[in-house]
Amino acid sequence: MGKRAVSVFFVFCLLMGIVSLRIVSLTTGEYAADASLNNTKSIEVSDERAPIYDCNGRLITNTQPLYFAAVKPTAKALSALSDVLDSGELETVKEKISKGYPAVVLVDTPNINCEDIQIIETVSRYSYNQPAAHLIGYTSSDGEGVAGLEKSFDKLLSANRRCLSAVFASDAQGRTLSGAQITQRIDSDYKSAGVYLTIDLEIQKIVEACMDSSGVGIGSVVVLDHETGAIRAMASRPVYDPSNVAGSLNAENSPFVNRALCAFAVGSVFKPAIAAAALEQGLSYNITYDCTGSIEVGGVEFGCYEHRAHGTVDMRGAIEKSCNSYFIYLAQKMDKESLVSTLSALGFGRGTELCSGIEASPGNLPQADSLDSPAAVANLSFGQGSLLATPLQIGAYMNTIASEGVYKEPFLIEKTVDAERENFAHEERAGEQVLSQETSEMLSVFLKSAVENGNGNGAKPDACTAAGKTATAQTGTFENGVELYNTWFAGWFPTDKPRYVVVVMKERGSGGASDCAPVFKKIADSLKTSGFLEE
Q: Would you say the pTM of this structure is higher than 0.70?
């Protein structure tokens, strides 16, 4: 009985052992299958910095599509690639996949009809004809910010990234499994992180197109929002390609310089500032002067443009006809301390920091003690001599006249977002009343008349009214015995309900009326056509 019990127990244990072994075998087999499916090989396709956006949240960077072919190591895939790659690229891919390993290669098309190839779309940092290139700047080959906003916000843009990989199912040796699908994986995502500018991308594109079609090969344009002082567009020419910086290193005319933030001789576009200072000192706009084409002050003769005689003009006529002699005569009547104080309040002689590392030059505003001779005052009165100003400063001062005497500091950064959390937002600031409302309203009438009836007529838009002033500034620089000029037009539109202030500056120009006024007109009409101005 005891022996039989032992035998039964032995058989029972044997049976239970077989069952247990079967369970373990089945379980182990399923885990092995899962492990096999989970063996993958991934290849990084892109690692993108957080973008730079416009005021409406539209991408300024990270917009140019790039297509990568994720390729299984098959003859079929290699054959399909032979139609889209050159021989050198094809040989490189062939070398990789001949060992049974997958590859990823940049291609020019999103359409390759092959089941062993998966197209993965990503973006390049910069686009062809990258908008606002001088503001955006560029990165190094290692992806670090080197210039512009890329450098100013390098830490934020680098810390928030989108990493995209192609994923291939593979065996334990890393060789691709033939039947498995190629997938893509986002390892991290910048989501809404980035730098948000006041730039309006559509206005920026319009401005750049107008510059290029009008032959502004060396110069700049600035567009300010009248209501806030926000910079809606800022363009400089010549421009470099941020995707190929080396290609512009030896180019002529300094393509890396943002001329909108550099100081230049300004000429007659400065005359309304002198008129403003005169009116603020109580001098009458009815003061007249009989212009014969030149005037002698302190033993020095100063001429109007081409020594053209304007006859008897008052302040309105002098602005319409851009009469140097009138403003030289007017400035001699002014208190120098008060004159310089008003000009300083209008933004001349002080820089504007747009963000860390990007600042507009302060230019040069002569101080009262340097205006120690009638000739020095005369030079200042029509924007010559040692006076220098940036296109951005000219825009801010014109906006002050358009804003009933309220100076509004231009700004560029709307907000920054880090890891989906806003860590900076521009605070709206009350402008500073630097001119009386009466002075500004009077000058607005005169500047409208300069466009309607004066030598700024070429700036008159078809779409709306405008006010503004031309300039042809001497630089003191000669080439082949001929003096080079900076030419300008600065103003706003519509006149009575201002929306945008626009400054156009061209280096090596011939005249503000011929070079820059038509560009202003083209920008105004284009903005109207594009829906940026109310009916």
A: yes
